[in-house]
Amino acid sequence: MLSQRLFGFFALSLTLLIHSGAARAEPVVGQPAPTFSGAAAEGGTLNLADLRGKIVILEWTNHECPFVRKHYESGNIPKVQKQAASQGVVWLQVISSGPDKEGYVDAATAKKLNQERGATPANVVFDPSGTIGKLYAATNTPQLFIIDPKGVLLYKGGIDSIPSADQDDIASAENYISSALKELAAGKPISKSVTKPYGCTVKYAG
Amino acid sequence: MLIHHKFTHLALFFALTFASLQTLAEPGAEAGTEQVRASLIASAAAVHPGDEILIGVHQQIIPHWHTYWKNPGDSGLATKIQYQLPPGSSVAEIQWPTPSKIVLGPVVNYGYHDAVTLLSTLRVADDAELGSELPINAKVKWLVCELTCIPQQVELALRLPVVAKGVAVEPGSPLVEAAKASLPADLPWKATLDEDAARLVLRVRGDGLPATQNQAILFYPEQWGPISHGAEQTAKFSENAIELRLKPGDQPLEPGQTLNGVLAIGADGAARGYRVSAVWPGIVKPSASVPVAANLALPTALLLALAGGLVLNLMPCVFPVLSIKALAVLQQAGHHRWQTRLHGWAYAAGILVSFAGLAGLLMALKAGGASIGWGFQFQSPLFVLAVAYVMFAVGLSLSGVFTIGASVAGIGSGLAARSGYSGSFFTGALAAVVATPCTAPFMGAAIGFALSQPALVMLAVFLSLGAGLALPYWLLCHWPALQRRLPKPGLWMEHLKQGLAFPMYAAAAWLIWVLARQAGPAAVAGALGGCVAIGFAAWLYQISRYSSDGRRRLGGASAGLLLALAVGGGYFAVDTPALTSQTSNASDEHWQAYSPDELRRLRAEGKPVFVNLTADWCISCLVNEQVALSRDAVLSAFREAGVVYLKGDWTNRDPAIAGVLAEYGRSGVPLYLYFAPGAQTAAVLPQILTPDIVIDAVKGAAKL
Predict the structure, then answer these.
(1) For labelling, which of A66, B344, B544, B640 has a CA lying 20 to 30 Å from the CA of B93?
(2) Is the confidence metric ipTM above 0.90 for this complex?
């Protein structure tokens, strides 16, 4: 009896030891995605926590970046956005360009740009201070994150498998987001959950 | 809007005109953009058939702008060169000069400022026609960035006359020679990788390392993934060694994978580069998600190890040995106090030496790059067989089939132990050996910590563990009050001794069962035959022991022969590859076989999952399964909550399971994990289970 209690005590201590000190800085696939709120193009403040229950895609963007232009002008990202919307996935563009930096836009311009490019994100989040970008350790435009309905990060990485600025490469590249959406729709886990992002540097303020 | 459109059309017009002009004009050896002037250069002004020369693209970049290295870092794009050559001639890959680090806020890039030459080896066709010109065409694509980035592309061409062998040729561009000096050199020292507190530690050792004390040191990883580009790299110097701590990146190295890159020593931009390749042994995977054992402080680990060793005494595998030893103390009750104490020390020494040996073995295996865990030696069927034989022989001795003279320093003498400190020593050693499969609470974390540490720390943890194991008997030997309370020796002791043979037989039987699972029926036949031979040998030895010299020699020789037969037969039976029946009828059970894919799939479906990592040679695992995991109450709780029960068998080596254990800071089984629906992290259950612990875990989590 005593030994059993002893075991219990030891085991408990061990468990406590294992669970302490779990704080982390960067988002990790399989861990809760950092929550944030920011001004949105559709007015008001968008709070990520309010989107619980839905799959959310965050797309870091900068409309002047040649890599972003590659995927918008070719219609590649707009197509994936429509695929996402048809699955009820909330697609958010995030703009972390600082004021007077490349890609910095106001809400009206952001909406107009998307209209011109045939892009249909659910919303655009403005992050001129770079807080959200640094929370996600976003380095590239485009760079994407997928968050599950419980707020867990499912994917972080690039848009596709061929890092280039050439539209011609899109056809032969694997679109990681499109593949991930298909797997999610089929109830499967995302097979490539961490990929190498490529593109322009996020134009943080300062 | 109208203006905007007009402008677009105008731009389009110019672009088209420019493009058509470019296609009309033959590309030259030089071409430029606003930011970069590129030229195609060669190391020779002419070539002979079959020559190997260097060719390359030289980029002259305007101030503040940069192009990128092979691994551009967090963003950007490496320069690409597509060479076109006549058939028979070929160009190898680009030899990249040592890059510079380019920091843009939180983003770190690797690239080149001002100027860079990207060389490649060109092999001229053996049948290149003399008197003709070798046409070299290159399509060069790069990304040039300051704050904004511009993808650019130029086409370059160079014609080199083909001259007969023996004809002297003029050297080509002087830029080639200059570029060769900027290439990283082969590392003339030894580079190794290990891990410390969730950092990869790259060590470079050797004579003649440059005086690095006040120099900048930077490691440029060749691939994206293994190393975080943005994290600070801290360097430590000592005589003839550099130690660089690197943070693992988004795709950390798997055990056995190689980290390639360039170690740059010296000021950025003027650094001397060295090509580095180091294999990641990966005993404990640097886990991003679960910071565990690696974060234990050394004193905590020592304390945990000591407690773990203490608890080991209560484990079914050690207890029989301990009781035999206690029996010996009873027999020594009449001895001098110092004699008893010396036995306590000898026993402790036996344990400590064994644990030191085990630590040494682990260190050697770790150095060899093997992925191993606690209790690993029981994954070797030969080791299991050997321990089974020893257990059986000890049982025979206890039963009185044979006794070994006090002069023979052996395990048996220690167990029979009327005198002989060596006997106490070897009993200690035996206790240490049989203790290893019982991963008691505390030990997991302590050993997980130890495995990830430098040799000395690892040794300290193991010795602390051994001290814990030795402590109870040592105390018994040193606490006269305790000794006085011990009952008087008598006939009952002989009966007790004979009775204690049965746990030994049981242990042997269990080990042979383990063997059956590991190596199949043939191994069992071999082991059982071996046991019969050992029994026969023991009997022959005993009956001939007090006979005449000749008969004694004959008896001894026959016994030896039989023992050799047992060992050899067992060896061959075990070593023969067997049909494993692991996959048997798992579907009939209430559990499914564990696989990482299955776990991922179930978790993605949002199903609650209970994972049990176990091994047949792990007694606590088997006990837990009997007292907790196969209880009806537990199984119905699983059914109610829709829990899928996955069982991972570590009886034989399995890197997938070793990986999971490492991820949770363990190096041995059991490990019980409960993944609540949709939870990101598993609840880690204690290593000793009761039905209530399991039911609470499932129900408690189900409420979330």
Answers:
(1) A66
(2) no
